[in-house]
Amino acid sequence: MNYRFVTSINKNEYDAFVQSSPYVNLLQSYDWALIKHNWKHIHTGVYKDEKLVGAGLVLIKELPLKMSMFYIPRGPILDFKDKELVRFYFEELKKEAKKYHCLFIKFDPMIHVNDYKSYEANDNKYKDTDLYLNIFKEIGAQHHGFTINIHESVQPRFISNVYNEEGWMDNLPKHTKRLIKDADKRNVRMICGNAELVDEFSRLVELTEERKHISLRNKEYFKLLMDTYKEDGVIFLACTNVYQLNEEASKKYEELMEEKSKTPENAKKKLRRLQDQLNSISKDMNEYKVILDEFGYEDQDIAIAGILSIKYGNTCDMLYAGMDKRFKKFMPQYKEYVENFKWAFDKGCIWSSMGGVEGTLDDGLTKFKDNFNPTINELIGEFDLPVNKMLYNLSQIAYKLLKK
């Protein structure tokens, strides 16, 4: 075999190889090492007859007692059916790992075991699943199983993904199209930008954190993403002008009141209809007043929801989203998700991932994402390759503490 293992690769060569692979994904991009700056890293590769045939961004995390762990997020990138190549890569990586007193190598490759719509979920795994499992077993890797819950693995095993297929817009559920029209009626408009939108986007994420009692990321992290991926990063903000909406509602209210005053008392059906409309507009105006009291009675746009996405190669990942719950009735997320898909597909992406969901496919996140008719990508899962077998079991305790 004319294989050669390296721990340093030119960025252009590395990204060109990863982006041409069917296993391409953002977490194996060359620059993801800059995002994970609190980890050390190496850009590994395998050359065969001086041609690059395998690559992997390896993140290195220090553990107690001067030990470490290696993690290859959604990688490595190589032909997993090539047993000799897989064996060579991991044998050489283990040699490198020992220099860092590494206890184990964790990896979760982008190998699909099944793809389906959430409403037709099934247990028919791809025929090659056993082939992959056997190859990894032969090199000594331990499979964590076909986990179901998101918290059971570092990266979600089930991904909700919208593909750039002909007619994808037409195939959106009817209620999604209706909700987008509702957003249009509320004058929801989209702003598309980059680092200049980080401040507003961060505000919306903070509101989401408070509402859901979760911890996401801060403004500095979002700016790092935008600065690192530049034109391949995008922030969509859904905005509306509540001042104008209130003005329009006030004008409509006066028109209805005038029409009602001219309607004869015996036209009871029409009077009921007019009163229902007045009640509805009055309710809207009361909601607008609460918002204007806080944001000010000015003719201005207000950002009410946002998404941050990164394009890498011919893929797009929607990484973070935030929304001001006071504008829930404006349905901004439906419009902005579709605009994000359009942006990705216009740039040549074959899919745009909305991120992970629970494997039960019955949680609220899955149901929301189902509004966009996604495909569920079920991945093979997580593996550990022990480097120091004697200390591996103890390392699992340390790893769980680190994970918390």
Automatic annotation (TrEMBL):
InterPro entries recorded: Acyl_CoA_acyltransferase, FEMABX, PG_Glycine_Bridge_Synth
Any single biological process term in GO: cell wall organization
Keywords of the record: Acyltransferase, Cell shape, Cell wall biogenesis/degradation, Coiled coil, Peptidoglycan synthesis, Transferase
Single GO molecular function: aminoacyltransferase activity
Record-linked SUPFAM superfamilies: Acyl-CoA N-acyltransferases (Nat)
Pfam families: FemAB
Recorded coiled-coil stretches: 239-291
Statement: the UniProt record of this protein carries the keyword Signal: no
Family as reported in the entry's similarity comment: Belongs to the FemABX family.
Name of this chain's protein: Uncharacterized protein
